[in-house]
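The authors assume throughout that readers already know how a fold can be written as discrete tokens. For illustration, here is how one protein appears when written out as sequence plus structure tokens.
>
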Amino acid sequence: MNIQDHSWLVKFSQFCLGKGLSLYFPLILTAVLAGGYGSDGATDWTENKGTPPSYPSHSPSVSPSPDIVNTSPPLRLISPQSIPSSVGWDERLRGWLGQPGDRQVLLTAIQNSIHYLSTPHALEAYQRYEKGVGASLVQSTPLNRCDETLLERVKRSLNRFRQLLVGFNSPHGLQSAVRREFIFYQSIGKDGQGQVGFTGYFQPVYAASRTATDVYRYPLFRTPPDIHQWTKPHPTRGELEGRDGLQSHQGMLKGLELVWLRDRLEAFLVHVQGSAQLRLTDQTIMTVGYAGRTDYPYTSIGKELIKDGKVPSKGLTLPAVLAYLQKHPKEVDEYLTRNQRMVFFRETFGSPATGSLRVPVTPERSIATDKSIFPPGALAWFQTSIPYPPHSNHPSPGLINLKQRNVGRFALDQDTGGAIIGAGRVDIFMGTGELAGQQAGLINTPGKLYYLLLPTCPWNKRLSKP
């Protein structure tokens, strides 16, 4: 294992330490860090097109308390009078920070959700959901006198939001129409009071080879065809690939190698992100995506280091983890194998990154949540802090100075993750490549999450006209 190969990670770590950002630096990947909250930022309104609403500021909380055990429904109906004035505002639609608006991008994400909601997979998911926590969305709905399933209601809500998005050129007009027509359900959060922890994820780009060599030694694997016949508990990561990650040719994964990477940590991080672009030795690009996993919960490296007293719990950062691994390289294999879950992949032949709903995920418009408690594919609005370059013509590639900005975003709930559990966790998809990785790594902030649904009936009483 050659930690030095991660030059961009090391430089990024050094940059953050030099800028005093050690408290806010990643979860670049949830595998490396334990959870925490980071800084709030100042919103930079670059265009004077009306006065945007003020977002509430958040105090940093590096070592948050554990989730409060709460038996309440994960979504709480909010009366129109109680909805904060900022909810429904989306500055990115009009263009900001020198970038054009992303209305068409959001429309594409909406269409991806509508496509999902028309599949048998969605029908099965919503039948399970309505029998569980989703029942609260039906029971708490005003004017619930229509014979309409929750799946149909979510789909109708998306179609109506798409009409409004196309019809209103002004973010203010869209916000007013959405607040007038839609019912808002707020996540109760991790504290029962609505505080949600946001992190970011991205699609990494790594060097790889279709054949094993002295340089490319660490494989990603296809799903074993007989995995459903495996006895439980499943074999652990260490049992499947060996303590050093190089023994798979002797075990149950022999012949299932899909592609080889240079570094075990890079391969491990692909497991966490769920997809990757791989630059092959012939300079072509191969894309891989999540295909399955073994039956184990996710285990955080950072939390394991804390548990063993290797690093302090307060202010845990990726630089601290990297520094420890550089100083103790013989312990790398020990900590990677503690995450017993093994993830499997398939080649996606140039397809975009795809979420758990089997549709593409869209930068800043797709979120990952706990699908056992939140409606899959549904329309959401969130408020948190996201780091951005100071202007559009930022240097690329290379490390840049990012500034945290408070933002509001409409998004689609299209993915999930092993560490995304409960009403108090959301992961935002930030895109592909180095800049997306830097942004994702700096998102570790509190915020709010709402889901938007139309009333069940009457359907035409509150319709807005552009």
In short: Residues 1-51, 58-70 have pLDDT under 50 and may be disordered. The first helix runs from residue 7 to 18. Residues 53 and 86 are 5 Å apart (CA to CA). The chain has two domains: 34-201+358-453, 205-311+324-347.
